[in-house]
Design a protein that fits this description.
By secondary structure, the chain is an alpha/beta fold. The chain has helices at residues 13-17, 71-84, 98-112, 116-122, 132-136, 138-152, 173-186, 213-217, 232-238, and strands spanning 25-26, 37-43, 46-51, 55-56, 60-65, 89-93, 123-127, 156-160, 190-196, 220-228, 245-254, 258-259, 263-268, 274-279. The protein has a nine-stranded mixed beta sheet with strand order 7-6-8-9-5-10-11-13-14, with helices on both faces. Strands 3-2-12 form a three-stranded antiparallel beta sheet, with no helix packed on it. The longest helix has 15 residues, at 98-112.
Length: 286
């Protein structure tokens, strides 16, 4: 068959293999999270798990949960970790106006010990909270992301939150998220998309505002949740007094690499740092 007879969009694996990136990790900035992503290697005929460590590079990672579960903290810790490593980040704030995001990130940088000059040098901010047209027009936002990434040699994109881009029009969630997904993938970015859960959603599921459309599009979904210890039985089980909050994190799926499927206990320290403490219940890794 002649080459001109091929249907447009049809490729051979050998053609695309040249563009396929190696599987490697990007540090998350969250203590205990990096080792939960792995690739498989063979040794003497047996599979062995090799931590990446961190998020798969060029993956679009979706963080979802109800309010105050630590989503924004994880996003900020990720951004600050890249800035400290000298890799540039484009942070798109949709909910929190720019000056207040700077205030939050400044406190997080102090807690993590990241020099402020590294932050100001390596993190750029798109204030979609202030600029209505960027929230309402995904094509305008995508175009801005493309221009800034190319001009400033950005390596990572954080959007907090994508929910604000389709607030009150959740029927459009799939098309909006898909456009942003393909934008950052075409630019070979490692991205973090934060989204919100509605009160009607099951807290430990991957469903978010916009339904299951969001986790179906992205490469990896991480579910953050919390509950209050209300009984002595729960107090004994989790080692926390009645009235305390228990936080958890679970990787719901990652199509790029292997991952631990267990639910992990998490905490937010007094310094405002999100970290993992270990599996909720000890058992075999997924």
């Amino acid at each position: 068959m002649k080459k001109e007879d091929f249907v447009e969009g049809l490729y051979s694996f050998s053609e695309l293999e040249k563009e396929a990136p190696p599987l490697e990790g990007v540090p998350t900035g969250v203590p205990g999270l990096d080792v939960l992503f792995f690739r498989l290697s063979t040794y003497e005929g047996e599979f062995k798990k090799i931590p990446l460590p961190g998020f798969p590079r060029f993956a679009v990672v979706h963080l979802t949960g109800v309010p105050d579960t630590g989503k924004s903290l994880v996003a900020e810790q990720f951004a600050l970790t890249q800035a400290e490593r000298g890799e540039k980040v484009l942070f798109v704030t949709v909910e929190l106006p720019g000056p207040f995001l700077v205030q939050s990130i400044r406190e997080r940088a102090r807690s993590l010990g990241v020099p402020w000059e590294q932050v100001t040098k390596n993190i750029l901010l798109v204030d979609a909270a202030k600029h209505f047209e960027l929230r309402e027009d995904v094509l305008a936002l995508s175009s801005l992301i493309e221009r800034v990434v190319s001009r400033e040699k950005i390596r990572h994109v954080v959007i907090d939150s994508i929910t604000g881009l389709y607030e009150g029009r959740e029927m459009m969630a799939r098309s909006i998220v898909r456009k942003l997904y393909h934008t950052v993938k075409s630019l070979y970015q490692t991205a973090v998309f934060v989204s919100q859960k509605r009160s009607s959603h099951e807290e430990i599921s991957a469903e978010a505002a916009g339904g299951y459309a969001v986790p179906h599009i992205v490469d990896c979904t991480i579910v953050l949740s919390k509950f209050v210890v209300t009984t002595k039985q729960l107090s004994a089980l989790y080692g926390k007094p009645v009235g305390d909050v228990v936080r958890t994190l679970r990787i719901d799926g990652c199509r790029i690499c292997g991952h631990d499927t267990r639910t992990y206990l998490a905490e937010i320290t007094e310094e405002g740092i999100f970290s993992l403490k270990g599996p909720l219940f000890q058992g075999k890794e997924g």
